[in-house]
Amino acid sequence: MVRVDRLFTQIFMDMMAGHQDRGFFRAIGSRPESKKEEVGPTAQNDSAFVGSIPQLYDEHMGALLFAPYARDVAKRLSDMKTGELLETAAGTGIVTEALATGLAPAVRITATDLNQPMLDHAAKRPGVARVHFKQADAQALPFADDSFDAVICQFGVMFFPDKLQAFREARRVLKPEGRFVFSVWDRIDTIPVIEAAVVALRRRHPKHPTWFMERVPCGYHDEKRISADLKAAGFDDCVIETVALEGGAPDARGPALGMCQGSPLGAEIESIEPGGLQAATEAVAAAIAERFGKGPFKGPLQALVVEARK
């Protein structure tokens, strides 16, 4: 399934980059790998959706899933009074904003992501004028050895095709005694809002063995594996802490939109059920409402926060 998840992620990234011929919404008229060009209203709608991807991701999953841990990361680095900090897989800049508004002015912040549209969205956040944004692959960082005092990555490691290489790169660009701090989601049953989404999709497609949200975002939580991977990358030791927090959303539909239409999960849904993305989104919203109610809600979250030193 690893190759399939990479394909879904690539389709998602192509959508944000404007490569509509590989966007999953094209499966309405053809399979995602089709190169056939479309014209007229459908193509225009595809374009509008492409432009909304970072916004959907940020608006509907940011406060619920990512902002609580962004604040946690900023607190962990609050003792950093000067120096160079690198963020990889910055996404829409939720952590970036927390760092930029919370750390000492003398700390120089560089935020990177593989996807330029995400960085464009991040650069519009309040309080990030001090941040240097740069498109970069966490597995091949365009920085010299021993450049940064800290490297952080919130909920990005799970998506790296070669985690060992990403860890090696983080260590390479760290100064001696530099800190590498990253977070990954714990088991899917510790994040009920994500679990509810997968339950809804299983109801629709009981023969589908696993879903993207459980394989990738919630698929890298084995502490022994994480420790072994870091050791193989050259980190001598690490500390792994289980952090339980709480996130909130104004209703059940928002998280459903974020997961189904603002993440690679949408490509998987369309690959199984061409043209069924909207119906799947509604089913996920209904499952979340079953668990949390139709109005504003708060839900438990659980992640592993990992810290290693060079």
Task: Write a brief structural summary.
The chain has 310 residues and is an alpha/beta fold. The chain has helices at 2-17, 41-76, 94-102, 116-122, 163-173, 192-204, 212-215, 223-232, 253-261, 265-272, 277-292, and strands at 83-87, 107-113, 132-135, 148-154, 174-185, 238-249, 297-309.
Q: CATH homologous superfamily?
A: Vaccinia Virus protein VP39
What is the first-to-last residue Cα distance? Answer: 33 Å
Please count the helical segments: 11
Q: What is the class in the CATH system? A: Alpha Beta
CATH structural architecture: 3-Layer(aba) Sandwich
Helix/strand order, N-terminal first: HHEHEHEEHEHHHEHHHE
Strand order in the sheet with the most strands: 3-2-1-4-5-7-6
| CATH fold naming | Rossmann fold
- Beta-strand percentage? 15-25%
Rough shape?
A: globular
Number of domain modules = 1
Which residues form runs of ≥5 with pLDDT under 50? 10-51
Largest sheet at a glance?
7 strands, mixed
Beta strand count: 7
The helix/strand class is alpha/beta
* Average of the residue pLDDT scores: 85
- How much helix is in the residues? 40-55%
Q: Rg to the nearest angstrom?
A: 19 Å
Describe what you observe in this structure.
The protein has a 7-stranded mixed β-sheet with strand order 3-2-1-4-5-7-6, sandwiched between helices. β1 (83-87), α3 and β2 form a beta-alpha-beta unit. α2 (41-76) packs parallel to α3. It is globular, with a radius of gyration of 19 Å. It has 11 helices and 7 strands. The protein has 310 residues and is of the alpha/beta class. The chain has helices at residues 2-17, 41-76, 94-102, 116-122, 163-173, 192-204, 212-215, 223-232, 253-261, 265-272, 277-292; strands at residues 83-87, 107-113, 132-135, 148-154, 174-185, 238-249, 297-309. The chain has one domain: 3-Layer(aba) Sandwich (Rossmann fold), CATH 3.40.50.
